[in-house]
Design goal:
The structure holds two protein chains of two kinds.
Chain A (H helix, E strand, L loop, with lengths): L1 H9 L1 H21 L12 H47 L13 E11 L5 E6 L12 E3 L4 E8 L4 E8 L4 E5 L5 E5 L7 E5 L12 E4 L11 E9 L8 E6 L8 E7 L2 H10 L9
Antiparallel strand pairs in A: 1-2, 1-12, 2-5, 3-4, 3-12, 4-5, 6-7, 6-9, 7-8, 8-11, 9-10, 10-11
Chain B lengths: L2 H20 L5 E2 L3 E2 L4 H5 L7 H19 L4 H19 L14 H4 L1 H24 L5 H26 L4
Antiparallel strand pairs in B: 1-2
Helix pairs in contact in B: 1-3, 3-4, 4-6, 6-7
The chains are: A alpha+beta, B mainly alpha.
């Protein structure tokens, strides 16, 4: 017995070292699973408060860009409004969408207080939380394009897993012909992603627009993801290897919109009940 | 560690971790060179700090930094590794004639050669562990090594500058 104590005492540093490393390993595995619920992150109150204060100072230097982006978005929305108003007149009497469905997406504007683009698993912290109705699994977009998905919330803050995360799979489609693929990030350049699983028989060119597909309940269909920059394919593969220039500039992210799909749960429960019969790609 | 020493180290902790959180966090050069100057707190603890205490302090420092980077555990793991290796490195690079009693670790006390090699070795180990854990995928290892190289140099230069500015003997 005495020898055991002696042994433990002599090697106490090494034993403690191993135990602490195991503890850290457990933390890493527990928290880096991107669907997993975080229990320890930057939405914690004190951490987020410090982040918010430092971001406030930084904001002054970015005001010009924020103004320009907001003005551009205003212009875009104005244009869309005009188009909608016109099409409504033209469409009168034909197909009537369910009035509840037309307003199924609610938007909450939030301010970014921390963002990273240089790690293989990037996250963003924003200054709105459960008190503003934000819950995990909601989609987040910016005026420029897709940003990511909420993974953790506290009362006043939330953490977003950005699409610049090597485990994130974003269901998207090529706008002009509707063929569906998955946008994945390789962990290197924050402006470029890869799009996979677009079959070879579909015609794709550099310059085509990539938007979110309707195959997910997180994002509305048609949110801009990026523009295809390079089309290539290995001879033995049945799918293209597409390089996508992302629309969102994650380095200068200032305001984002959290999307609340009010029928998300309803849609998911229904989809779980039904076995999918066939995909409807052409 | 007596009361005065403890108080001094607590102040160093607040200064270094605060510096990291508020200013240095946003300092990234060409997306590959990061500055993790907070490791200076662990590097500059008194020479005779007990290894057990050293490990625990490393863990706390790492966890606090993690909460700001949203990388739960990664910085902590790297810091604990560095804390464990510190006594070994100190032993390996013992100068001729051994160490004096109650010596404080700084550029002035320990001499340029000793301090340069001591800090650089431990910073490289810390950064290597940090970026390899963060990569966690074979395809990202080359990038992780590049990040280690650039960031080690960056952090090290920052550490030396701070030494020259604030730790000079009057």
């Amino acid at each position: 017995m005495q020898r055991i104590f002696w042994f433990l005492f002599t090697y106490r540093a090494f034993i403690l070292f191993v135990l602490l490393e195991i503890f850290c390993g457990w933390l890493i595995v527990k928290n880096n699973a991107y669907q997993g619920a975080y229990f320890y992150n930057s939405s914690t109150r004190y951490t987020a408060d410090v982040l918010k204060k430092t971001q406030e100072v930084k904001d002054y230097f970015g005001l010009k860009d924020v103004n320009r982006e907001l003005a551009a978005e205003n212009a875009r929305l104005h244009q869309m409004y005009e188009q909608l108003a016109l099409s409504k007149i033209a469409q009168q009497g034909s197909y009537k969408p369910d009035s509840a469905l037309t307003q199924r997406f609610k938007f909450v504007a939030a301010k970014v207080i921390r963002s990273s683009t240089v790690s293989p698993r990037n996250t963003i912290t924003i200054d709105k939380g459960t008190l503003d109705g934000i819950k995990p699994d909601m989609g987040v977009i910016s005026p420029q394009g897709v940003v990511g998905k909420i993974t953790a919330c506290s009362e006043h803050f939330s953490v977003i897993t950005s699409i610049l995360h090597i485990d994130y799979r974003l269901s998207s489609q090529i706008k002009k012909n509707g063929s569906v693929g998955t946008v994945e990030w390789d962990g290197k350049n924050s402006q470029i992603s890869a799009m996979r699983y677009v079959p070879r028989y579909v015609e794709v060119q550099a310059g085509d627009t990539v938007v979110t597909s309707s195959y997910n309940s997180v994002f509305p269909q048609g949110v801009l993801v990026g523009v295809i920059r390079k089309v290539s394919a290995a001879p033995s593969e049945t799918a293209y290897d597409l390089t996508v220039q992302l629309a969102t500039d994650f380095n200068r992210l200032s305001y984002v919109y959290v999307i609340n799909n009010i029928y998300k749960e309803e849609q998911e429960i229904l989809e779980k009940k039904n076995v999918p019969v066939e995909s409807n790609t052409p | 560690m007596n009361g005065r020493e403890f108080f001094l180290q607590a102040i160093y902790f607040v200064i270094y971790v605060g510096l990291q959180m508020v200013f240095v966090r946003n300092l990234v050069v060409f997306d590959v060179a990061f500055c993790f100057v907070y490791v200076a707190f662990i590097l500059l603890l008194p020479l005779e700090t007990d290894t057990v205490l050293l490990l625990l302090l490393s863990l706390i420092t790492g966890l606090l930094v993690d909460s700001f980077y949203d990388t739960a555990g990664i910085h902590a793991a790297a810091c604990v590794l560095m804390g464990y290796l510190r006594p070994w490195v100190i032993r390996i690079i013992t100068p001729r004639g051994g160490y004096d009693q109650n010596l404080r670790i700084s550029l002035d006390y320990m001499g340029t050669e000793w301090f340069f090699s001591y800090s650089l070795i431990l910073i490289v180990f810390h950064h290597l562990a940090l970026f390899l854990i963060e990569a966690s995928q074979w395809s990202l290892v080359p990038l992780a090594l590049l990040k280690t190289l650039c960031s080690s140099v960056f952090t090290w230069i920052m550490l030396i500058i701070i030494q020259y500015l604030f730790y000079r003997r009057r």
